[in-house]
């Protein structure tokens, strides 16, 4: 166990570790990812989660495997550029089966495969081990570049989003704002900084944040376990609410905006995000509160015309019938023995046995309920009279 941290992904060439988010906020334990099978497992079991982090960990798990196979094992199965390209394709196909809803993994897999195919068919690519190593190096370099690019994109999302919210608030005569966020979209869900939580960080850094609220986000509790952890860690003034308190919060607490992330934004702006996002968008509309989606442009899926076409992942009933946490007995142990090593994260049964369970991990907020989509390239809004987001046009011109 190491010290509390917000670093979800630790990488150096040939070595990848992810912070086990199932154990947060009570234990800080890193898990080594030795290759694609480990990468698939940590994503599937949600030890690492959040759309950008899923894509990055998947890409890097293959980078680690390729590095080991080429550099240390000189694997005969990877002796030519074509063999490396076929290997990368098969491994990416497997990684794509880990979680279906977030598009970032699919976008990254498509982009990396195109890059590898191009490298393998260059006239300069010799059909030998040296040519194979060059193709592997091209893949590894591109996967590694995703880490720095994601942080840069998040910083831009934070800046654009904060400016947008503060401009709106200024029109109402407010200089500092209260915002609500859902799920976890911060450093833990990305390479660092975060998307919707990046906007909150930016607002705080520029003195524009009065207070942040975060939902608990049942059933997996990304809000109470992860976002609350990040907010406390960063000393951002913040309050946790249960998911069913949001309408009361909007009615009573003068919230300027709800900011959420996205797992997939369809071509018309319909947005799949953590379950509960849809009801937040409805109550935001009812209360006249800005509802903002914050996501890198890699979360936009122009191939998917609208939200009805998005595959929604359904997860284990155990996430609903049980809750992860630390028991009071464990806490007493920690106090008594002053030994963090005694902390154990456990799963506690909270539902009547025999009850049926429905556990969709995501839902879709229709674009009609969304005020703006904030990307690293700028803010997409609807002009008066427009009834859907001009996403294609925006991307073409930025
Ligand atoms: O099931 P999760 O925890 O992977 O879901 C995460 C979310 O829905 C996030 O809001 C989304 O991926 C954006 S993360 C920047």
The poorly predicted ranges are none
What overall geometry do the principal axes of the alpha carbons give? globular
Gap between N and C termini? 44 Å
**Share of helix, binned:** 40-55%
Fourth-tier CATH superfamily name of the largest domain? Translation initiation factor eif-2b, domain 2
Instruction: List the helices and strands in order.
Output: EEEHHHHHEHEHEHEEEHEEHEHEEEEH
Over the alpha carbons, how many angstroms does the gyration radius reach?
A: 22 Å
How many DSSP E strands? 16
- The main sheet orders its strands as 6-5-4-7-10-15-16
CATH topology of the largest domain: Rossmann fold
Hetero ligands: 5-S-methyl-1-O-phosphono-5-thio-D-ribulose
């Amino acid at each position: 166990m190491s010290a509390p941290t917000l670093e979800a992904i630790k990488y150096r060439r040939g070595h990848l570790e992810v912070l086990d988010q199932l154990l947060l906020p009570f234990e800080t334990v890193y898990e080594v990812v030795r290759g694609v099978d480990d990468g698939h497992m940590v994503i599937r079991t949600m030890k690492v989660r959040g759309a950008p982090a899923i894509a990055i960990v998947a890409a890097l798990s293959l980078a680690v495997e390729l590095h080991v196979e080429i550099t240390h094992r000189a694997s005969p199965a990877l002796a030519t550029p074509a063999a490396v390209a076929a290997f990368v394709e098969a491994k990416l196909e497997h990684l794509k089966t880990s979680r279906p809803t977030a598009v970032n993994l699919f976008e990254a897999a498509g982009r990396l495969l195109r890059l590898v195919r191009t490298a393998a068919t260059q006239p300069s690519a010799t059909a030998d081990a040296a040519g194979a190593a060059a193709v592997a190096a091209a893949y590894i370099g591109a996967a590694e570049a995703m880490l720095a690019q994601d942080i840069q994109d998040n910083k831009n999302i934070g800046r654009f989003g904060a400016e947008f919210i503060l401009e709106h608030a200024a029109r109402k005569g407010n200089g500092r704002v209260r915002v609500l966020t859902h799920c976890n979209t911060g450093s833990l869900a990305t390479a660092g900084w975060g998307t919707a939580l990046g906007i909150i960080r930016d607002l705080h850094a520029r003195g524009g944040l009065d207070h942040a609220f975060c939902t608990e986000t049942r059933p997996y509790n990304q809000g109470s376990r992860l976002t609350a952890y990040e907010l406390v860690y960063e000393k951002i003034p913040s309050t946790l609410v249960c998911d069913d308190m949001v309408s009361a919060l909007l009615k009573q607490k003068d919230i300027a905006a709800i900011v959420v992330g996205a797992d997939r934004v369809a071509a018309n702006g319909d947005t799949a995000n953590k379950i509960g996002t849809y009801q937040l968008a409805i109550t935001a509309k009812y209360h006249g509160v800005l509802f903002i989606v914050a996501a890198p442009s890699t979360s936009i899926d122009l191939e998917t015309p609208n939200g009805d076409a998005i595959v929604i992942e359904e997860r284990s009933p155990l996430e609903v019938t049980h809750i992860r946490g630390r028991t009071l007995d464990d806490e007493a142990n920690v106090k008594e023995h002053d030994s963090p090593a005694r902390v154990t994260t456990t799963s506690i049964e909270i539902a009547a046995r025999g009850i049926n369970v429905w556990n969709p991990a995501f839902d879709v907020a229709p674009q009609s309920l969304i005020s703006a989509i904030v990307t690293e390239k700028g803010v997409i809004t609807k002009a008066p009279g427009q009834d859907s987001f001009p996403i294609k046009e925006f991307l073409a011109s930025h």
